[in-house]
TrEMBL record:
<protein>
    <recommendedName>
        <fullName>F-box protein</fullName>
    </recommendedName>
</protein>
<feature type="region of interest" description="Disordered">
    <location>
        <begin position="254"/>
        <end position="274"/>
    </location>
</feature>
<feature type="transmembrane region" description="Helical">
    <location>
        <begin position="152"/>
        <end position="175"/>
    </location>
</feature>
<dbReference type="Pfam" id="PF14476">
    <property type="entry name" value="Chloroplast_duf"/>
</dbReference>
<keyword id="KW-1133">Transmembrane helix</keyword>
<keyword id="KW-0472">Membrane</keyword>
<dbReference type="InterPro" id="IPR027949">
    <property type="entry name" value="Chloroplast_duf"/>
</dbReference>
<feature type="transmembrane region" description="Helical">
    <location>
        <begin position="334"/>
        <end position="354"/>
    </location>
</feature>
<feature type="transmembrane region" description="Helical">
    <location>
        <begin position="309"/>
        <end position="328"/>
    </location>
</feature>
<feature type="transmembrane region" description="Helical">
    <location>
        <begin position="121"/>
        <end position="140"/>
    </location>
</feature>
<feature type="compositionally biased region" description="Polar residues">
    <location>
        <begin position="257"/>
        <end position="274"/>
    </location>
</feature>
<keyword id="KW-0812">Transmembrane</keyword>
């Protein structure tokens, strides 16, 4: 208020040009407001920044993040947290990983649809070619075509069609498009699951983001990239006809932990854990290993044998059909060659429809992925029980609920089921999982 009075007095007393000039200087001096940085504000509306200095360029943030990834344990450096990285910056790294995961989800969805189209289009095309070749082979023996040149044209055309069908079948049976599409569907589902896990971790502001969270997220992304590769060339494609069937593995290898002694050890009731709950979890692990995982490995082996048989029979039949079409015009064995050519073509069409129309490769991959899910659940339970400090484990009640949901059971059903696994009672014939 005093400042405004000084300003009005100076303006009223100015009559000459020199006085006006002096008064302007006085006004400018009177209107010098104090610096806002020196005023202590009762509240602060500033948002957290990813940089420690206002003048720091955004490129420095990227450099810090890249240094963090390079210095991670996977790159041969110590996993200690850099003092220049704040929890806000680590949260920014997790957001970057989420963006990369979202891009991978889109990629696997698009490529999965493409490979599913491959299975449909290639099957229809090969069956059409095979039927056309068998029809031409049969027409050549009916006498409808009078001239020898027309008969020769039918023989050459049917032979070429059979040969083309054989080559296409060899390629199709090698890459197994239905199995490729199932791999991309699994990868999409698992990347979505990882995306939601990171999103949940970021939304829970109770615990600050640490370097360990960032490293674990990076390892899980790279493990999924390795388990479900996108390219078909270069030797990175998953083996479609393995000698030994093993459960699918899409999670990073966990570091070994000290074994926990069985018993109370003073841990009863701590963090939701008790000796009874530990005993139940160990019984579920044993049943998963001996019943569920083994059953799906057995089913995978059965489907693999069926797929191998059909994959060999298809090109073999079309090759026999090509030979029959080539010798269909022979004066001595012409009728037998026609019979072989037409029959082989019809049988090849049936075999191809059973293999690729029935998507035997997809069923094999589904069983293999299911076995991998059980193995992951086994390792998760074991690694949790092997943690000697109970307060560092996941809460016992929450962990029990998670296991029940993954097995398709309610909490009461899981407790009753795990209680039936005690040595005093007969071993149940029921599987641990009700989902598959």
């Amino acid at each position: 208020m005093a400042t405004l009075q000084v300003v009005s007095n100076l303006l009223c007393s100015s009559h000459s040009s020199s006085t006006v000039s002096q008064s302007r200087k006085g006004v400018q001096a009177a209107l010098q407001f104090p610096k806002l940085n020196n005023i202590r504000k009762p509240y602060d509306l500033s948002l957290p920044s990813l940089t420690t200095k206002a003048s720091e360029p955004m490129s420095n943030i990227t450099q810090q993040i890249m240094k963090t990834f390079i210095n991670s344990p996977g790159h041969g450096a110590s996993p200690t947290l850099s003092p220049t990285l704040s929890p806000t910056t680590l949260a920014g790294e997790l957001y970057m990983i989420m963006e990369a995961i979202a891009e991978r989800i889109e990629m696997h969805q698009n490529i999965g649809e493409q490979r599913n189209n491959w299975n449909t289009l290639l099957l229809n095309s090969i069956n059409a070619i095979t039927i056309a070749a068998a029809t031409m082979t049969g027409l050549g023996s009916t006498g409808v075509v009078g001239s020898s040149s027309s008969l020769l044209a039918l023989q050459v055309t049917s032979t070429l069609l059979y040969t083309a069908a054989t080559g296409m079948l060899v390629v199709m049976n090698t890459i197994q498009p239905s199995q490729l599409a199932e791999e991309q569907r699994n990868a999409t589902r698992l990347f979505k699951q990882l995306h939601e896990q990171i999103k949940t971790k970021l939304s829970l502001s109770r615990n600050p983001i640490t370097q360990r969270d960032v490293n674990q997220a990076m390892k899980k992304v790279l493990a999924l990239d390795k388990a479900y590769p996108l390219p078909l060339l270069g030797g990175v494609m998953i083996e479609k006809f393995p000698k030994n069937v093993e459960p699918a593995n899409w999670w990073p290898e966990q570091s070994p932990k000290e074994q926990t002694q069985v018993g109370n050890n003073g841990k009863a009731g701590n963090n939701g854990w008790s000796s009874k709950l530990e005993k139940e979890m160990r019984g579920i692990v044993e049943l998963l290993r001996t019943r569920d995982t083994e059953e799906f490995i057995r089913l995978s082996n059965m489907m693999l044998k069926i797929n191998k048989t059909l994959a060999i029979a298809g090109p073999l039949l079309t090759g026999i059909g090509a030979l029959g079409a080539a010798f269909a015009g022979s004066p001595s064995n012409g009728s037998l060659a026609v019979l072989v050519g037409v029959t082989a073509g019809a049988m090849a069409t049936v075999v191809n429809t059973m293999e690729h129309g029935g998507q035997i490769g997809m069923i094999f991959e589904m069983y293999r992925a299911s076995a991998g899910s059980f193995q992951l659940l086994e390792e998760t339970i074991e690694s949790t029980l092997e943690e000697p400090q109970v307060e560092k484990r996941e809460h016992g009640k929450l962990f029990e609920m998670k296991v029940a949901l993954q097995l398709g059971r309610s909490l009461s059903d899981l407790r009753n089921f795990s209680g039936s696994l005690s040595p005093s009672r007969p071993v149940t014939k029921e599987f641990a999982s009700k989902l598959f």
